[in-house]
Backbone:
């Protein structure tokens, strides 16, 4: 049994559907809240990095604005981070789990990976609309970062007001 298999089993135990690519050491992970989650498994490091990839590449003429958004967003995020591949225009939320020599039991691994997935999914879903708006030019990077940072507070306030 490989580390890739252990990770896949843990993700299934955490309630996810998975599709493995053993040649690339990746796993496509089902998600109810974002379009796509990719797990990149590094067996030697015993690490898993989850990516929520934005559905559209950033055009070259909008790279500077989205770069600013990514820097501002990553400064605001406490756990996950956003990244922009300048060569491809791909934007993704990223969160990694490094186990190293630690060998958690199967239930603990499932819970750890579930928590990591939820973290990266929250970050990805929080920024998907903001990224789109900055790419389209309807929102500047600073305003978009502030909107994404304060969105959870606004949602909580709206929920309290609705009661």
Residues:
């Amino acid at each position: 049994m490989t580390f890739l298999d252990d990770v896949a089993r843990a993700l299934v135990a955490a309630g996810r559907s998975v599709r493995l690519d053993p040649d690339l050491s990746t796993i496509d992970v089902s998600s109810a809240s974002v379009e796509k989650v990719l797990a990149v498994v590094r067996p030697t490091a015993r690490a898993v990095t989850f990516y929520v990839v934005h559905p559209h590449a950033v055009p070259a003429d909008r790279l500077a604005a989205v770069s600013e958004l990514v820097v501002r967003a990553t400064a605001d995020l406490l756990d996950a981070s956003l990244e922009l591949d300048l060569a491809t225009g791909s934007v993704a939320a990223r969160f990694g789990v490094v186990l190293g020599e630690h060998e958690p039991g199967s239930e603990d691994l499932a819970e750890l990976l579930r928590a990591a997935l939820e973290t990266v999914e929250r970050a990805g879903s929080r920024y998907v609309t903001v990224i789109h708006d900055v790419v389209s030019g309807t929102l500047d990077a600073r305003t978009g970062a502030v909107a994404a940072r304060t969105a959870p507070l606004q949602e909580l306030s709206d929920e309290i007001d609705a009661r």
Notes: Residues 106-136 form the longest helix (31 residues). The radius of gyration is 17 Å.
